[in-house]
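Homework help board

Subject: predicted structure for assignment chain

Our instructor gave us this sequence and asked us to write out the predicted structure in token form, then describe one feature. I got the tokens but I'm not sure how to describe them. Can anyone check?
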Amino acid sequence: MASPVQTANTGHPTRYWHALGDGRVQCDVCPRACKLAEGQAGLCFVRSARDGQIQLDTYGRSSGFIIDPIEKKPLNHFLPGTPVMSFGTAGCNLACTFCQNWDISKSREASKLAAAASPEAIARAAVATGCRSVAYTYNDPVIFHEYAIDIAQACHEVGVKSVAVTAGYVNAEPRAEFYRHMDAANVDLKAFTEEFYWRVTKGHLQPVLETLKYLKHETDVWFEITTLLIPGENDSEAELQAMTQWVMENLGPDVPLHFTAFHPDYRMLDKQRTPHETLIRAHRIARANGVRHAYVGNVHDVGRQSTYCPCCGERLVGRDWHLLSDWHLDANGRCDNCGTAIPGVFEPQPGDWGSKRQRVDMTRFSNAY
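My token output:
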């Protein structure tokens, strides 16, 4: 039976909340623990108090659906070269002043969400367009927890995988339920100081680190980490040393790290774009500390965007931005030169989607509900 598509006016019931006894209810999805009176919405704008419970106001509605290369998420070790159907909703549970998707994540207007789709319609669209996975992205899927899980279940029924692009700011119980349904994730580690997290995102670092450790040690989810390097904010030698050493000690050498270039946006317009040299330095520090797969992004750098065998140095997957070139992995995801197993989720041959972006008209797939 098709899942109902909720409108912004009706809301969708949620699980992670409790009554406070004073007429308010507390949302328990993320560490913010928003305490809401009737009719109030949390900082994310999309989870609100109605009829004595927390409801999700954006279930079934999206800012639009686009087919991307999986490398754009970025994921370099998960089904390389394949298309992923990407979408977001509205709102966010962090308040980053540098947000690169601020028109979506900071939107308070559910009326802007023009694309309506049930979980089953999204699964049908993914199959019909040849997408191997669906990505919950542009804003954090933590805040549309119930919608994302329902979509993941519908997708799994038709052989389509699910990818979470997230800041990892979520409480333990909803985190466990959420990742039971995810196949891959890219976690945005925004910095490695509590001072940055509180001042720039109005959040905290430790819950993100707990999510990363949970993913590594308690799930089979393939995940990679991205840090947007902002000049003068989170790009110091000391911070990059501390972060990459923490990754090695807590996650091991095989979790890919992506260092990407910042551009001025939203409320952080006073910073320059990240110099290429900063990305090179971060890449060098990560490799020196033992990270086997470090990458740079948002710049042209084939050498540091490609995947190499950590044993013999063979270029296994060549990348120019999101376009693949070399492919030297065997059918089992091993280096075809020396046989070293490469961590990730690989198929015998890469996809051939290339660097295209393509919009999806969901009305073609939404006539069954």
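Reply (TA_rk): Your tokens look well-formed. For the description, you could write something like this. The chain has nine helices and 20 strands. That's the kind of observation they're looking for.
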